Amino acid sequence: MPLKNKVQLISYPDSLGGDLKTLKNVLNSHFSEIFKGGVHILPPFPSSGDRGFAPITYLEIDPSFGTWDDIREIGERFDILVDFMVNHISQKSEYFQDFLRYGRNSKYLDLFLTLDKLWDDGIPVQKDIDKMFLRKPQPYSTFQIQESDTYEKVWTTFGKTDPSEQIDLDIRSEMTKQILTLFFENFKKYNVKIVRLDAVGYVIKKLGTSCFFVEPEIYDFLGWIKDLAESLEIELLPEVHSHHSIQYKLAEHGYWIYDFILPYRILQAIINQSSVALCDYLKTRPAKQFTMLDCHDGIPVKPDLDGLINSTEAQELVNICLDRGSNLSLILSDEHKGEDGFDVHQIRCTYYSVLNCDDDSYLAARAIQFFAPGIPQVYYVGLLAGENDYERVEATGDGREINRHNYTLEEIEQSLQKEVVQRLLKLIQFRNDYEAFNGEFKVKESSTEEVRLRWDHNGKYCELLIDLITKRTTIQYIDENSNLIEYFV
User: Fold this and answer.
1) pTM
2) pLDDT at 333 over 80
3) Among all residues, which ones are annotated catalytic?
4) Where do the domains of the chain lie?
5) Secondary structure element (H or E) that encloses residue 182, with its range
């Protein structure tokens, strides 16, 4: 079944009211006509860390969130998208716990990457590691095996602890493929329509490479998992933070991709009051994308925009974001920093706060997102025009929590009363319902201080005009009676 060209929501299972049952009620009571594209539920599975991104299993839902039946019921009304951390699984999983007990005698040994699968003698070579795109200083962890009182080094790309909570899977193993198939069959059983392949760029480990999006091997794996998904009528969305050329290669191979460039380009246009870079980008980008402004991590910078931005100008924009309360995720590996040392991986903030909580600027940003070709996603904090949550950052020590506020039902009701939220809901409905968004897209010529975007289809059209100086946003469109309507967002 093809994906709906309509707006989707992104939310944690517990961020809009506390659990999945409440999320379903909130969706049905407030947003049934808003999120016609579906709902991306960030990991609801039992997890040992990283707010769900260190899954213990995909066969269960964390009891504090609810059950698979709750997912199935949401899926009866909304297309469900879930994350699948295809690169790794929690060390608390039954599979790795068996390995920790029995080591080389574990029935699940083939699932994991002991270092002898990379180096024959099992001893890591630093010159090989220096070439890799690292997410932490050392891409492996040492574990004590209980039965034999020996030690094993196992590949662990991610993790904030030592040893890591997230254990990489050996995707070459037939056992791994059997378990991945089991998980996908379970997704199908409970109405999951879309699976986001989180961290898929890291699945190939090959010495002498960055161990990130290793070609051509990555396409062999993607082809296998795509065939599996299609057999179950599930769409795939590979999630790859990388140089934009890699995203474009995925698009050329027919995959949906994320537009990780757009959030920065829109922010740059609104803050600098210039449409040049944004419009140049909109003229050339692939159309088969999911678009977003904000998410559970941050606004992508490096490596997503490498080669597209001047680091001096980017640092100036970053400094403005910092002045407005943002914090940063940084690149760790010297080899993957800019030549001048520029090392900003992501800008962490709410999109509303980084635009100085200015309603018109925020709605202009959303209007550009909605007019860009692709399926728009709106993060739950952005939906409610949420502001930076400094208390959560301080309480958790995690800078990403600045944009992960959990809303009570009372806070949701209060936020829905805000004028900016009501204006955003109206804009979402227009994006969902106006038929021209299924037609032809065009970036119209304009001054550098304006954005003009247009859609045409079957005699209908809608045209977006944004004045980047005043932040005034206007949409002209032809209604069902062939009247020209002017809509001030």
Assistant:
1) 0.95
2) no
3) 198, 239
4) 8-86+172-438, 94-168, 442-488
5) helix 174-189
